[in-house]
Amino acid sequence: MNTTDTILDNKEPVWSAFEKWAFRVSFIFFFLLIVPLELDYYKGWFTTDWVNLHIRDIGRLSGSSFNPIKIKPLFDGAADKGSIKDANTSFLTITAKDGIYGLASYINWFLALGIGIVGAFIWGFFDQKRRNYRKLYYFLLVGVSYAMLIKLQGLTFSKVFPTQMPDLALTQLNTPFGDFTAQKLYWIQFSFVHGYEVFAGLAELLIMLFLLFKPTRAVGAALSLAMIGNITFANHTYDGGIHLAAAFFTLGGAFVLWPYLKNIWTLIVLQKDVKLNLYYYDFKTPQQKYFRIAFKSFVFLFFFVLSAYLHWHNYQYDSYKVPSRPGLAGSRGLYDVTEFKVNNKVIPYSPVDSIRWQNVTFEKWSTMSYTVFNTFLIHGEAGRGKQFKDIDRTYESAGTGGGRRHFYYEADTIKKTITFQSKNKVYKDENFTLHYQRPSANRIILWGKNQYQDSIYVVLDKRDKIYPLYVGRKENLVVTP
User: Fold this and answer.
1) In whole angstroms, what is the distance from residue 427 CA to residue 404 CA?
2) d(Cα 247, Cα 254) in Å, to the nearest integer?
3) Mean per-residue pLDDT for 442-458?
4) Span 105-142, pLDDT tens digits
5) What is the pLDDT of residues 260-306, one digit of tens each?
6) Is residue 351 helix, strand or coil?
């Protein structure tokens, strides 16, 4: 839309019929995408515990998605979102083979666009004499800019204070490379380069700051289009799961940048002098000026300052990607399965045995994993959500295939029992309790009935394994297999 076309005597530009139609479509489309339409969102501002505010609360107050049509995963747990609550406004559920990550995942965008096209014709029929929509266009650009920076803050500060991709768990370090999904590989490659993760967060913070202020808004939009556009492509390539969120920043950046493109082309490509001739709403009355200052100050203090503090606090004390409950004291490590019995029958080691555990890891938090020669359905969520419950913090287990099984556990040090609960939401009902004994610091003995109600007896001996990733590539190492 070019707002510098024919000018009337009162300096009001006249938009063409197509420009007015295109604006109406854009206004309805972006209105559906950026304005929360759920009553629960507005209730959240009054039901939040402001005295004990947590970073998880900021996400709930950062808007909601236009989601009247849900994509059903191919099987329960395939796209597990932990304890994140789905929207209540959905009225239709569909199943699509590539729905979670493919073109069908944009179905709500297509619906919003369809509503925009139909709504634009209806709007135009009742508003035929309108010369332009300069004021609405200005506020739509501002609304999209603010929606982008508000939605971006969660991803930004979780990188600045690196919790979005936490350190690799032992289970990941001892899982064959080929057993990870493409999505998981995309995420965990950042887990051992926190410097780059922080750099990416600071770059996103710069985008947020640029979008907040009118003189730099175009630069912020351009950076959003370029940087987060790259993230959009990466998420589509690796089935990253946040492709819709990234695509919103890409589309929003292009929309905010659109009024500047003609002048950018003239200046850079045609190498001619240009004068920026954009419309800005004039906040004339004191009430308008005070409201503008108050609103911008609130956004800055709430979504920049407070969000940054809460993310820092989360980083220091309770990273939401891994359980906060400590594991069994002194148990962290990789264990060989020295002895394994099922129903009192000794099962000798075999790399192709589908029952016998091959190796076991205990994390410093309350997760245990073991490997068998078998395959299981994968729950594909990468731990993106800010889950409250430890059982829902599945970053170290999600997106892992092959024979690796992951369990959250709680140990009763008085009764000497450990209760295990599957972290794979496809098998969420696989729970069991085992007795344990620790005859030495490096040996754990487990016995009882497993999730299949078979009697098992397992002797675990800790392996003294060195991980070159953390020791350093210049060190002389003798690496055990």
Assistant:
1) 13
2) 11
3) 95
4) 888 999 999 999 999 999 999 998 899 999 999 999 99
5) 998 889 988 999 988 888 888 889 899 999 999 999 999 999 999 99
6) coil
Backbone angles phi, psi at 425, to 5 degrees: -65, -15
- Tokens 């609360």 belong to residue: 57
The token duo for 457 is 């007896």
Contact 108, 69 (CB under 8 A): yes
For residue 32, the cross-strand partners are: none
Q: How far is CA 252 from the centre of its chain?
A: 18
How many other C-beta atoms are found inside a 10 Å radius of the C-beta of residue 208? 24
Of 61-65, 238-242, 463-467, the one with minimum mean pLDDT is 238-242
Element (H, E) at 339: strand 333-342
Phi, psi of 394 (to 5 degrees): -110, 25
pTM of the model: 0.86
For residue 198 the two structure tokens come to 């922080």
Cα 24 to Cα 20: distance, rounded to the nearest angstrom: 6
Measured in Å, how far apart are the chain's first and last C-alpha atoms?
A: 63
Structure tokens at 334: 């990789």
**Confidence (pLDDT) at 382:** 55
Rounded-to-integer distance, Cα 368 and Cα 431, Å: 13
Q: Are 294 and 42 in contact (CB under 8 A)?
A: no
Cα distances (angstroms) measured from residue 214 to each of 138, 339, 449, 477: 11, 68, 65, 55
Helix ranges (H only) for 130-174 are: 134-160, 170-173
Query: Cα 146 to the chain's mean position, in Å?
Result: 19
Instruction: Give the residue among 147, 150, 146 at the shortest CA–CA distance from 59.
Output: 150
- Phi and psi (nearest 5°) for 263? -70, -35
pLDDT at 393 over 50: yes
Tokens read off for 284? 């004339």
pLDDT of residue 8: 39
- Report the C-alpha gap between 194 and 315 in whole angstroms: 13
Contacts for 294 with CB less than 8 Å, ≥ 6 apart: none
